[in-house]
Design brief:
About 40% of the residues lie in helices and about 20% in strands. By secondary structure, it is an alpha+beta fold. The chain has 3 domains: about 5-80, Orthogonal Bundle (Arc Repressor Mutant, subunit A), CATH 1.10.10.10; about 85-155 and about 270-295, D-Maltodextrin-Binding Protein, domain 2 (3-Layer(aba) Sandwich); about 165-265, D-Maltodextrin-Binding Protein, domain 2 (3-Layer(aba) Sandwich). The strands form 5 sheets. A 5-stranded mixed β-sheet has the order 4-3-5-15-6, with helices on one face. The model has no long low-confidence stretch (mean pLDDT about 85).
Length: about 300
């Protein structure tokens, strides 16, 4: 039995939630995957996985063994990379996760730059607004807006995004456009609700260097960035969002910026990855490319007249 190959199969089963998916991902016969796990459990003398007709779950021994396998496999991969051409031309699968808007509007359109530079790296990109469990889900690196909350991850700051306050033309026809915070009396907002924590977000403005929170009446609350903007375009009230997410709507007149003299605070964008991936050449070159991308002129991270 190739123990490292067996560990690789075991971790992929845990990450993908099934023997068949792991076999397809690793391009192995499904019978081989089953045999390797049986051999690994026999070698260790413990059961690693609970198998039912509907799901796979870790036993207590399996839960203890899994993170050790992840670290060992990462160390093996990086050791081999240091001693091979992969040090200069990294290769293999890189799993990344990012907010849908950042991926769709900024990263993926620029991605040919990265893949041309590193043609042997295969990318698997998840686009969603929910936090992911990097270890459990086998993700190498994530991009997240806001302050990093998980201190167990390595954080690489990328950029502080300009944010804007917006409303639809229809809404502003029914409510006079506000020019000061005092003008917000009688206005409404669309409320953003975190799908992970359930936290509800109102509006924030920077006044004389201090952040001031404003809570307005609301009729609609949503838990996704795209839904948040859709509700704004439908005329349900004011929203605050990174500029990149509404640059096209502002240019086309589907949304209008208001209260430019009292902007929202900037939103930090950070790349996060587990400590055991810190030496990964694939992760390093991808994060370095993201830093480079964030400084390129012409992207929509900054409002065009912001002075950046």
């Amino acid at each position: 039995m190739d123990r490292f190959n067996a560990m690789r199969v075991f971790t992929r089963i845990v990450e993908l939630g099934g023997f068949a998916k792991a076999a397809d991902s690793l391009q192995l016969p499904r019978a081989s995957v089953t045999i390797l796990i049986k051999q690994l459990e026999a070698h260790l003398g413990v059961q690693l996985l609970q198998r039912t007709t509907r799901q796979i779950s870790l036993t207590l021994d399996g839960a203890a063994y899994y993170p050790r396998c992840v670290r060992l496999l990462a160390d093996l991969e990086e050791t081999e990379a240091v001693l091979s051409a992969a040090r200069h031309n990294p290769k293999g699968l890189l799993r990344v996760d990012m907010p849908a808007g950042v991926g769709r509007l900024i990263v993926i359109p620029a991605l040919p730059q990265f893949t041309a530079r590193y043609p042997l790296i295969e990318l698997e990109i998840g686009l969603n607004d929910r936090p992911v469990d990097l270890i459990r889900e086998g993700v190498d690196c994530v991009l997240r807006g806001g302050s990093p909350l998980d201190e167990s991850l390595v954080a690489r700051p990328l950029v502080v995004l300009d944010q804007v306050t917006c409303a639809s033309p229809d809404y502003l026809q029914r409510h006079a456009a506000p020019h000061t915070l005092d003008d917000l009396r009688g206005h409404r907002m669309v409320e953003y609700v975190s799908s992970n924590s359930g936290k509800r977000y109102g509006l924030e403005f920077v006044v004389d260097g201090q952040v001031r929170s404003v809570d307005l009446p609301k009729q609609v609350a949503v838990n996704s960035a795209d839904g948040y903007l859709a509700a704004c375009e439908a005329g349900y009230g004011l929203v605050q969002t990174p500029y990149y997410h509404v640059a096209r709507q502002l240019q086309e007149g589907r949304l209008c910026e208001v209260l430019r003299e009292v902007p929202p605070p900037g939103m930090p964008m950070t790349a996060l990855y587990p400590p055991h991936r810190q030496l990964s050449r694939r992760v390093r070159v991808f994060v370095d490319w993201l830093v480079e991308l964030c400084t390129q002129p012409g992207n929509d991270f900054y409002r065009k007249d912001s002075g950046h």
